Amino acid sequence: MHAAGTLRDGLLHTAGDDDWDEVLGAHLHVGVQLTRALVPAMREARWGRIVYVGGAAGLVGSVGQGAYDVAKAGLFGLMRGAALELDRRGITVNYLVPFAYTRMTASIPPATPALERFKQHARSSRPCDVAPLVAWLCSERSAGVTGQVLGVRGAELGLWSQPRPVQHAVRSEGFTPELVDVAVRGALSVQLTPLESEFDLFAEPAPPVSRADSTDCDHDRSDSR
Predict the structure, then answer these.
(1) Count of domains forming the chain
(2) What is the tens place of the pLDDT at every residue in 69-124?
(3) Which DSSP symbol is given to 39?
(4) Is residue 10 a part of any domain in this protein?
(5) I want to staple 73 with a disulfide (CB 3.0 to 4.6 A). Which of 8, 56, 58, 144 is the partner?
(6) How far is CA 28 from the centre of its chain?
(7) Using CB atoms within 10 A of its CB, is residue 4 exposed (0-12), middle (13-18) or buried (19+)?
(8) Catalytic entry in 52, 68, 95, 101
(9) Annotated catalytic residue 101
(10) Each residue of 121-167: pLDDT tens digit?
(11) CA distances (Å), 171 to each of 119, 176, 182, in order?
């Protein structure tokens, strides 16, 4: 399981080379290196479990986190490629989208009132809420479930969609730019993806997990997101 992470937030035109290198290195390059190191033994054993800790930002996007968005999107591509390569060897590869309040997420500056509200209700989502899904993905029980994006948000377990063609426009004579405009703004328009950030998409509080003790999970604070 690859759960390394760091943040160096900044707009695309203000983040420096060092910011990009650190974030891509921790989130993406380490994931590639670990995969290359572990896969030979897994292939020989014809069994293995790989879980990449991704993030909603890599699938949806977020403002001021370009390097993080790219790194997590890269992990998604790595997951799909590895899952296809290793499927016949009994090795599953999946992408985890955890929602948990950690030291890393606490460091995100509340630039807007909406983000401040998001951070406040995010405090109820703990790393230990994500742990059962991780344990399952790493177990024998998850056999056959590979190439998937799964997430936990409080008491909610979610299966994410993945990029696929959702609608087609066919014209035997081909298209001109003008006809592309007609198609995109016409028949295809109902399937256009809204321009939402992860903070827009998950603006509402997560379904709460009932805890017998309010101090449950206090020991599991981590830096992963």
Answers:
(1) 1
(2) 999 999 999 999 999 999 999 999 999 999 865 666 655 666 666 666 666 666 66
(3) H
(4) no
(5) 58
(6) 12
(7) middle
(8) 68
(9) no
(10) 666 667 889 999 999 999 999 999 999 999 999 899 999 999 999 99
(11) 48, 10, 12
